[in-house]
Amino acid sequence: MAWRIGVDIGGTFTDVAMVEEATGRIAVAKLLTTPPDFGQGVLDGLRQGMAANGIAADAVTLLSHATTVVTNALLEHRGATAAFVSTRGFRDILELRRSARADLYDLFQDGPSVLIPRRRRFEITERIDAQGQVVTPLAEAEVPALVEAIRASGAETVGVSLLFSFLNDAHERRLGEMLRAAFPGLRVFLSCEVLPEIREYERASTTAVCAYVGPLLEGYLARLQAATGALGLPPLHVMGSGGGVLDVAECLRMPAAIVESGPAAGVVAAALVGRQLGLPNILSFDMGGTTAKASIIADGEVTVTADYEVGGGVNGKRFIAGTGHPIRVPVVDLAEVSAGGGSIAWVDPGGALKVGPHSAGAMPGPAAYGRGGTWPTVTDADILLGYLDGGALLDGRLALDRAAAERAVAMHVAGPLGLTVQAAASRIVEVVNANMCDALRIVSIERGHDPREFSLMTFGGAGPVHAAFLAEELQVPEVVVPPAPGAFSALGLVATDLRRDFARTLYAPLDTVPPGRVADAVAAMEAEGLAMLDAAGVAAERRVLIRQADCRYGRQAYELTVPMQDGPVTARTLRALAAAFYAKHAQTYGHANETEAVQMVNLRLTALGRQPGLALAQASRPGAAREGRRTAWFDGAPHPTRILWREGLAPGAAIAGPAVIEALDSTTVVPPGWAARVAEHGMLRLRREG
């Protein structure tokens, strides 16, 4: 039998998901994450999962991985010693940034850290104007001195971003050629290769991010690929931020493309399950150990944005614009809050209860894990409320110390607030639920969608515990708990396609631009996309090219991305593009002026190598059925609650709340007034009774 394997590293757990291609049967291995050597957890999980399920290395057809290496390097400021080269007079572009401020009224706020300090930022004489014409030729005579300065700086990598190179890249490519000849052992990132798009600062920032994290990513992937190769596994693929996997060579060419690697995989898996169940509109909700992430799937399409900041600050509810490093690469549109099972509860000096942003992580973890943690977390509160039990998680291999959880909550929350331990635990859950509702509102209501028209698909180790409470608050009619929710992001890794995104600036009004000019730009990008698919060995029948365009009104500063029709590019194609923009503008902002001309800014192309389809399923094992009872707390009161084991539930079984449905990787809570049903493919579907 052929198997696909996905490995996802989370803040607390490393998940390995194995799917048999012919049947969709799922197997899961889950173990604690192993900082600082995250690769060790990957290898341990692979060995454990393959051995437990009798999977031979030569039966694995796809090995995909989601990594936080890029994000962690930026958050922890431990990237490479990088150099940066700009047009003379633009040395400080990374420091000047945009004029936007994170806090308009804070006169003493510090700007974000600069990845490449001024002493390693260099200039070269050249100039291309805003029409792409050469004003000042490239001063090649300056290159030897530039090379010596870079060498003396100790740089391990170089980023180059020259003015208007997205219109005319001749100078940048010539300089790159000379630098690569001078430094054959270093990676040189050119902005015309990384991001040939308008907006000088964002292009420079994306190039600098690639240069800063490139060597660290290269070392990590080289070690991991060598180790998995030694196990006899196929070449490694890595999840990209836009919802598709890349081979290692593509990752190293564009390291910024894998910033939101793990969260994107979960949204892809949610879209897959939605197609299986015939649910086109889904709110995707992923609550892990450190954060909770929400995204939206409308009409079956994952929402992707090209505006993203990595390493930004958090105000407890969302990332603050202007506090991170912008990267202009397609990223699954996520709202992320510091609300996970490991989020720490604390009381501020004013007596207000807070949850997060700090997390206990994998080490020491929640107090109940018995690994040295003394601060109360959301997981500790869930244990005290009767939602979690030590006999279920990791099939009993993760023993939970209820007494330690009680001591932590009593000392840090119940005592300072004058509450009982149970009341304090209830308050902790109420606060974290409110924070997570904010994330769901951001991706739904603030994007022009009504959550009452969506189903909430919940996953992550802690997601199914809290999902029904969130659905009730937002009036979402249904909660879907997919198979293996605790390892669902890892499942997304095996269900996604090979993907690479291309972009090119074409700045022109849609009503006057010659269709042939647009057609030429599209053809050039399609040639690049097909070359990538050729190199990856993707068969012709599995290749898909998707066109899009960034459009705006002429007086707007930012764009909306809208789909573009296939086939020959004609005047009719451009009229349809304008109509799509009007519709998207009306949905996003509540209005559209169809008498005003539309301006195209960028063309985009997504090249996909389709994977053979999968139907995820969780089989029932009647022999695994078991049932018990314990007291759980809802709305501040104790309730006798049924405890069921998910694997033993028969298809069609109905469970009235209050109930707790336990599994090896995650626990589902069915509150009073709700009912759960075991639907097709072993999915759990929760609805409010009546």
Automatic annotation (TrEMBL):
Domain Acetophenone carboxylase-like C-terminal: residue ranges: 522-687
Segments forming domain Hydantoinase A/oxoprolinase: 203-501
InterPro entries registered for this protein in UniProt: ACX-like_C, ATPase_NBD, Hydant_A_N, Hydantoinase_A, Oxoprolinase-like
Domain Hydantoinase/oxoprolinase N-terminal, first and last residues per copy: 4-181
Coiled coil: none
Protein name: Hydantoinase/oxoprolinase family protein
Organism: Paracraurococcus lichenis
Lineage: Bacteria, Pseudomonadati, Pseudomonadota, Alphaproteobacteria, Acetobacterales
